[in-house]
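haha ok so turns out i had the wrong file open the whole time. this is the CORRECT one, sorry everyone. sequence first:
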Amino acid sequence: NYLQDATTQICGSFHPSNPNKFITGNELGHLVIIDIQNIKKLCQASYRHNKIVTDIKFSFDGIQMFSVSGDKSIVVSDFESNKVVSRIERAHESTIECISIVHEKHSIFSTGGRDGKIKVWDARLNCTKNTLCSISVFSDVISKENNRKRTQRARKPPLAIVSKIHFLFDDLNVLVSSSQTDPYFYLWDFRKINGANISCGISSPLTKGVYKGPSKMLNIGYTCLGSDQNHLYVGCVDNRIYCYEINKLYHGVYSKFDKFNEPDNLSIPEGGKRQAYFANFDISHDKQYLATGMFHDGIYIWNLSNKTKPVAFLKNYSRSYITF
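then structure:
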């Protein structure tokens, strides 16, 4: 029985047009397709990666699936034939943490890694040689001692681990990035890349959002990103999901540390496990519901038209990944 397999499943994704099929990636580098209706394993693509599979996404037509890994590789596979379409080795300098697909252009996708880089790729091109764009994400969180040393030596700030990336409005223009160790998340506008060369390497973000919660942790960060038509939802390790109005975010309203313009938030209800945090969440395709996967707690489901409390709770015995 696949569900009794001792191998840890790290990530997963439902097929966009066949919800009975669910693909998971595990710690050994396997991709496994499961029939949810009959709870059985359909097939296994052994060792697509040499290390842990960190993220999986489908193209919006469901024809191709994209996976990234701790072995620094990106694999694009054909779902029906289960064959590799393309493979990009050494796509980043360290573990690739996340991948996001552009809705309107299925061949274009972006990756973020522990090397502090965001890269945009076009599967129709020779991706092994070039990216459409590469951005270095520098952390604004610097201790006083490190800041003094950096000032003395005129060094650049450290790179932030890119934990999650998310395209807004289903197009290529604007991308959001976040880190589990940085209290800022950034908006990048690819129409505003510095210089004539789109592969400039480093660009300034369009704007950023700062942490406005109660925690005093210096390096508090974010675990997950999602959006509907009007809001960006940002899951934080302080047990809250913050709801930022996209229009205000664009105009830099959330970019300063102040007590004004605080975003709404979804927080764990009274009686929930306070040591838990939102390891993952997903928003339904009709943008009506948000479901959370948590460490050491169950699944909360929220109606986004009424954010005061969840509409349902499912006990899930410490499983932390959830997806529609």
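The helical segments are 144-153, 246-250.
again sry for the mixup
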